[in-house]
Amino acid sequence: MQTEFVTDLAPIAPDAWDRLTGHDDPFVEHAFLHALAQSGCVGPGTGWRPRHVLLRERGELVAALPLYLKDHSYGEYVFDFGWAQAALRAGIAYYPKLVAMVPFTPATGRRFLVAPGIPEQAAVSALLDGALELLRRQGASSIHLHFLNAHEAELVRADGRFHSRLSSQFHWQNRNFANFDDHLATFRSAIRKEVRKERRRVVEAGIDVSVVEGPQLTAEEWQALTQFYFDTCEKHGSGPYLTPEFFACIARTQAARVVAVLARQQGEIVAGTLNFEKGAHLYGRYWGSSARYDSLHFELCYHRLIERAIARGYSRFEAGAQGIHKLRRGLLPAAIHNACYVADPRLAEAVADYLEREERSVRIELAELDHHGPAHRDG
Known about the structure:
Number of strands: 15
Order of helices and strands: EHHEEEEHEEHEHEHHEHHEEEHEEH
Number of domains: 2
Low-confidence stretches: none
Strand content: 25-35%
Distance between the termini: 56 Å
Radius of gyration: 21 Å
CATH superfamily of the largest domain: Gcn5-related N-acetyltransferase (GNAT)
């Protein structure tokens, strides 16, 4: 296999790329990654410079690692700001660094894209060889692999050159539920009643909620979803990572992966979520509303999407980063697998020590959160 480094996916045929992406991850598809670059979300001036690693066999693309050279640590959701500060105090340059993830997308999925029939362990090690070569060429301090699926985490661990890193989120897992009431039946009585009250409040407020698949979304609905994203960023005092052009690109090229949940009051769109689905997985991504409505966030971001996941037989629903309030809506604590390589031996030793302590803390937190989940019967 021959290694190649590219800064642009445009010359790569979408079909050749997408045959590597597997069944359940919409974010590593050519259309999504190219939309980020085409719309100016990544590239010059953003601090996210594409440096993708490709493997070819007799000219055919057989594996890839979406990789970005970064000048900061924003938009990753797996935090290393403390590492950067420690490096600065020690006189070690921390930026640039290399990050393998879908920018601004805290969703577990494929990082090592491997064609069917190619030995996975060999491909993963070869892609890591390429990433380490890029580290040397670019003078990067480190390589960070974020939001690996559990299988890939094992392949990276078997390679032996990267340190494992554990973090956490809240995910919903389908336990062969027949319908939403079947899902609620697993909750403690008090929490089950509160969820039903939340859903009634939306109806009593005269709000109509609809689930619309991407190809059926109108231009007005796309515009509303785009504006909701920017409104949410402004309300939280954070600069938007995405551009209006990104949403326009997705509407043109990846609408088949989109499902929106829209809320209307007296015919006007007052809130919405933009979500993605592929295979057996559903991913909640962007939410916004024109005003504050009691319980509407829970209805659009969790309850309606769990209903859809049950109806379509999906195995997992992820609703993004953070949010302990998700626990009482049936999204349970889940371990998130990451990995890193640090070039400087001094910093590497400190990071390895930190990661051991961090993992113990995360595992204690996961157990404690699980103890307080909605189905726990002992208070």
